[in-house]
Design a protein that fits this description.
This protein is an all-alpha fold. It has one domain. The protein has nine helices and two strands, in the order H-H-H-H-H-E-H-H-E-H-H. The protein has helices spanning 2-10, 13-21, 24-48, 60-89, 94-118, 125-147, 154-176, 189-225, 229-255, and strands at 122-123, 180-181. The protein has a two-stranded parallel sheet. Helix 8 (189-225) runs antiparallel to helix 9. The radius of gyration is 20 Å and the shape is globular.
Length: 257
């Protein structure tokens, strides 16, 4: 299967050229950056279209489009995990890890597609997000404890820590979008209020992590490919303002739950 995929990719002239001159990992690096910028744009669009509860009864083409767009997001998340293992844990078996990335991406995308086709799935939002947020925070803490005393800038460290948190929470959020929240009939007003506050807190944390991670990623790309310092500062200021505006919009949407 791997040989068939590589053979098919080589038929694309730019891919073939860079594979021969720079190597496949140069292409993977570019794919990571492209999918990262795409994911950042998708986060901004999702903030504008955010609703308090997932909606599963949608037009087929819209749901199919969402499923397709999940592929670059999940690739960026899992390949980001490979980069973290490389940078922070000294894992150098890139070929093996890249196979794991592609395998996990394929498995998750198929799982998400199956969940969409099955429909009618229910989940307790409080229990679901309690487990997911605990896993995300544990991953973020484990990575933060390992890299926090390094010589890298605080923004670099926060970008990696937020990436570890999003590695757990973003795939979980994509799955949650295609389930119906299940509410127990016996829960009282106080319990429902606690669940609502908890879900808002999780969404706010997810919002901050996604916007910071995406914004710093765009900043890194600009730093690598824009040579003019004045233009670089202008673009960084524009990106920061844009993401702050969307942070404000996102906070308003979350608080309206």
């Amino acid at each position: 299967m791997e040989g068939a995929i590589l053979s098919g990719l080589r038929r694309i002239r730019p891919v073939s050229f860079y594979a021969d001159t720079r190597g496949w990992f140069f292409i993977v690096s570019w794919c990571h950056r492209i999918t990262g910028v795409l994911a950042a744009v998708m986060v901004l669009c999702h903030i504008l279209a955010f609703r308090a509860a997932p909606e599963t009864n949608r037009f087929f083409l819209l749901v199919f489009f969402q499923w397709v767009l999940s592929i670059p997001v999940i690739f960026h998340a899992f390949n980001g995990a490979r980069i973290i293992l490389y940078e922070c844990y000294g894992r150098r078996d890139d070929e093996s890890m890249l196979r794991w990335v592609l395998g996990l991406v394929s498995a998750f995308v198929l799982l998400l597609g199956l969940l969409i086709l099955m429909g009618g799935q229910t989940v307790s939002p409080f229990f679901y997000w309690m487990m997911v947020s605990a896993g995300g925070l544990a991953a973020a803490y484990a990575l933060g404890a390992r890299i926090w005393n390094t010589r890298h800038s605080v923004f670099w460290r926060l970008q990696r820590v937020s990436g570890a948190f999003l590695l757990v929470t973003i795939p979980a959020y994509l799955l949650f979008m295609h389930t119906h929240p299940a509410v127990s009939a016996g829960t009282g007003a106080v319990v429902n209020a606690i669940q609502s506050v908890f879900q808002k807190a999780v969404y706010v944390l997810l919002l901050f992590a996604a916007l910071f991670h995406g914004g710093y990623g765009v900043f890194s790309v600009l730093g690598d490919y824009v040579s003019s310092k004045s233009l670089q500062r202008t673009l960084v200021a524009a990106v920061a303002c844009l993401f702050l505006v969307f942070l404000w919009i996102g906070l308003k949407r979350v608080m309206s739950i």
